[in-house]
Amino acid sequence: MQSWRVHRNGEPSEVMRLEETARPEPGEGQLLLRVRAANINFPDALLCRGQYQITPPLPFTAGVEFCGETEDGRRVIATAALPHGGFAEYAVAPAAGVLPAPHALDDAEAAALHIGYQTGWFGLHRRARLKEGETLLVHAAAGGVGSAAVQLGKAAGATVIGVVGGADKAAVARELGCDVVIDRHSDDLVAVVKDATGGRGADVVYDPVGGDAYAKSVKCVAFEGRILIVGFTSGTVPSPGLNHALIKNYSIVGLHWGLYNQKDPAAVIRCHETLTEYAEKGLIKPLISERVPFAGAAEAVQRVADGATTGRLVILPEGAAS
User: Do residues 96 and 88 lie in contact, with contact meaning Cβ atoms separated by under 8 Å?
Assistant: First the structure.
């Protein structure tokens, strides 16, 4: 089979190599799946760089999330058991975590459902306790993670303010359903949020960016607001001023969704059932901006690493349906 393998750490475009390899052998409690579509996540770039919390042995195949097919023909979604990731014709996944792909979504959309939407649902509902009628501020609202949060926020009955970088991404955020869109390149984020909320501020902030996004969020979070820390795509991990949180009476809430697979796997299954129902009702639909031919995988991962994309880029192995 063909597989995009990483033999040394570095930038994805430099270290991902397309090779002919043997099909991986699943271990105990694992399944071998034929890959129908593999979604690119920012952690895939971090894996290439050697900067992710998980460091698989070299060489490895990245691709942490994919839509696959079982030996008996069932269409499923899964997170990969590294080092045998989804940027290949066949991948390995923990059997307990393999879930049915929603009928309402095609392969590329199903490949982008699991991590981003599970993160959004657990973050907004389990950690931040978002309520109907509250205001949700979403950073990187036109990106893969942010677009999922926008859709889930609207499904929950929240007013959604989306933050993006540039006019093209602003147009995408509006199409997603954001009630207010802020272009961080030209707008005063704090002033716009306060104006849109009558001075109250955002009840929940969804932050996969860190850095300056976090610094501005604390200036416009509401009384008893919750700032949800999802990631640090800016490359800068903030150092929160806890005295400021005390004075303004807001909460800083962390989310590492992967822990739920270990600590509460039943909740992950229940969440998937909810997301499947949302998809069938048309409340959520992964924003696929590009379906990438298999030969273009390394370049596509690099673009995601560079923050030069909107929505999701999904890799299609040779012969996969588009």
Answer: no
